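Sequence dictates fold. Next comes a concrete instance:
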Amino acid sequence: MKPTEKKFFDTFTDFQCLILAHMNRGDINGITASHYNIIEFILSKKGSTGKEIATAFKITPAAVSKQLKILISNGFIVQIQDEMDRRKFNLSATEKGRFVVENSETFRKKITQQAATILSSAELKHFNDLLGKILKEIKL
């Protein structure tokens, strides 16, 4: 992807999550936009913990715990006890969790590629700037 398309892809991801979270709480494949973000975080940071997720997303450990229980019970992630510190539990995405993220990424890439053929580079940059402005300023 060209740098402009990559930036658009990343911004569109945030925009998509904003829309999904607001419309019917974003319930797609049994998960919300928050769940999706947590699975994506776990995939990007192998062996992550609930504490790391709470820090990264600036939410309480209790809120993370609630979301993790939902993701575990629905088979999107698993907890694995750390071999070095038996008090610590590392998180890992299941095949089901990986599928949701990969499927969403495929969709966003397809939209990004189509937008790049419809819009000029200047228009794509302008649209990206507008989406960024909306995400920065919107209050729900």
